[in-house]
């Protein structure tokens, strides 16, 4: 079958990505009028072609491109699943994925959009599905879970071949169960969200205290 996504390759070649220390988002260098950036992570940025909007191009930082083959393999093992995206191909520094509609759980909190309990359950089902495929679902956080037509869609599987449990999802579930009812439907300021994110990234990731993740004292101060 013809790889119609290749039309974006020339535009993508005008862009490069560099990583930053302290688990901060990557930096984007260069630009193209035919692309729009739809996501920025700590290893890669994601672009959509304005000429063929069916695809998302996940471009890795120059020092992270070894992850491309690993992530491609993960998608092959996951196969056709309603919980995960589809990988159509790859080039030297990017993966070609299905463009996923929806809004991240991070943006749901920013905008005060309710996150139903069903989404939490579906992510648990997705993790179990991945384990059945011999993978280790980890690095699941607010920015890589989409609310898509009332269902959960996970958009980043790059760490599923790594060992260990980073407990990110467990901490999110604890925060949801203990505190979400206090903030449901209330938009959270970006400044507060970023303060919590940075605090979490600087902490001991294996602590089991949900308060350390959600920044409980920040929330109780803001809404008291």
Write the layout of secondary structure elements.
Blueprint: H1 9-12, E1 16-18, E2 27-29, E3 35-40, E4 44-49, E5 55-60, H2 67-78, E6 87-90, E7 94-98, E8 103-104, H3 105-111, H4 117-132, E9 145-148, E10 151-154, H5 168-183, H6 190-202, H7 210-214, H8 216-223
Antiparallel strand pairs: 1-2, 3-4, 4-5, 5-7, 6-7, 8-9, 9-10
How many strands appear in the DSSP assignment? 10
User: How confident is the prediction overall: mean pLDDT?
Assistant: 88
Number of discrete domains:
2
Globally, the shape reads: globular
Number of helices: 8
Low-pLDDT parts are: 205-224
The largest pleated sheet is described as: 5 strands, antiparallel
CA-to-CA gap between the ends?
59 Å
Q: Could you give the order of the helices and strands?
A: HEEEEEHEEEHHEEHHHH
Structural overview:
With 224 residues, the chain is α+β, with helices and mostly antiparallel strands. It is 36% helix and 19% strand. It has two domains: 7-98, Phosphorylase Kinase, domain 1 (2-Layer Sandwich), CATH 3.30.200; 103-217, Transferase(Phosphotransferase), domain 1 (Orthogonal Bundle), CATH 1.10.510. It has eight helices and ten strands. The strands form three sheets. The protein has a five-stranded antiparallel beta sheet with strand order 3-4-5-7-6, covered by helices on one side. Strands 8-9-10 form a three-stranded antiparallel beta sheet. Strand 6 and strand 7 form a beta hairpin. It is globular and about 50 Å long. The protein starts with 8 loop residues before the first helix and ends with a helix.
